Amino acid sequence: MKKYIYSVISILLVCASCTKDEVPANYSIDYTNPQLFFEELEYHGAVLISKSGNDIIRKGFGMANHETGESNTVTTKFRIGSVSKTLTGMGIIQLKRDGLIASFDQSLSDLDPLFSSFSEITLRQLLMHQSGIPDYIPMVEDAAKTGEAISPIKICELLEEHISSEGLVFTPGTSMQYSNSNYLLAAVLIEKLAGSSYENYIHQNILQPLNMQHTEMGTNSIPSQGYAQGYNGTQNVSDYPMAITIGAGCWTSSVEDMEIWCKAVMEDEWLTEEEKNVIWGLDVAAETTVFGMSWFVSNINNKTFIWHGGDIDGFSSLIGFIPESEGVIIALSNEQDNTAIIRNTIIETILHNEF
C-alpha cells in the first residue's frame, strides 16, 4: 500500500471541507492559557480539550445566534463539514464487519453495478483519497444553491460523465488528492449494500450505540434555538443545500458528542487493533502528515495527532486525539473567516503547550 506524505502545514491548510476559503498569513499569539488563547483568536464556537480524562478547557465562545443573542455552549449544535467523513468511513468498516464487504481492496465495480465506471478504484483508495476522482462540489454547488434538486445518484452520474470525457485526475493509487467525491460515493455504497438509507445506517450502527444524541443530519435551514447559525463576518450564511453533502459534509453535532466519538475510536472498546491499523496504523515522519482511511495522521513535535477538519459555509470544525496522552482536541466554530489558518494555529499551539 503506497502512502503519500505531506508537510504538516500543507495538510492542515488543505480544503478538508465542502467549501473553500482563502488562507491568510499565520497568527502569532503568546500562549498563557487556553481560555486567553481562544479569546485572543476571537474564536466563535465551542471548545473541548482534555488530557488523560481531565479537562483543560470546556467552554463556549461568542454567539451562536447574533439575531437572538444566544451564546455558544458545549451543547450547541454545529455543522461539522468534512468531519462527517469520519462517520462515513466507520460506516464502511461496519459493512465489512457485517460481511457485506470482503476486502478494502475490492474494486468499486465488484461491490455494486452502479459503480461499473469505477472498476480501476478500490475501496481503500477511495477512503484514502487515492482514487483520482475529481471533486464534485464545483460541478453542482452553484446550481444547488439556486434551488435545483441534485440527488447523490445524479452526482454519481455527473462524475461518470465527467470521467468518461475527461478521465481521472491520476491513475488510482499513484497519487493523492483530497476529494469530497470519495465520501459521497462511499455514502451511496453504504445505501446500496446495507439496503438502508445512509442516515439510518449511521444512526443504527454508530450514533445510537454510542448514545450520541445530539448528532443529526443537517437541514438546509438551521433552527433558531440550540443550534449555531453560520457567519461570514457579520453575514448569516447558514442556508445551504445539504442534500449535496451526503457522506462528505452532512452531519450536525455538538462538542460533547464529538468528545464521545473521539474517545470511542481512540480507546479499545469500539475498534479492534486490526481496524485501527487499517485506519491510521502508518509510520509518519517528523512534521509530516499521512492520509489514513477517513482520518489524517500527523507527527507534530514527536506526537501522533489523529484528526479531521472541515469547513462548510459559515462553519469550521476540528476533532482529533493524541493516543499517547489520551488527549482530545475539539473545536467547532460558526465563523468562516480565516478558518484554515485558525485550525492550523489551534493544532500547533495546543499540541506544543498542553501536550
TrEMBL record:
Coiled coil: none annotated. InterPro entries: AmpC-like, Beta-lactam-related, Beta-lactam/transpept-like. Residues 46-338 form the Beta-lactamase-related domain. It comes from the Bacteria. It comes from Carboxylicivirga linearis. This is Beta-lactamase family protein. Gene3D superfamilies: DD-peptidase/beta-lactamase superfamily.
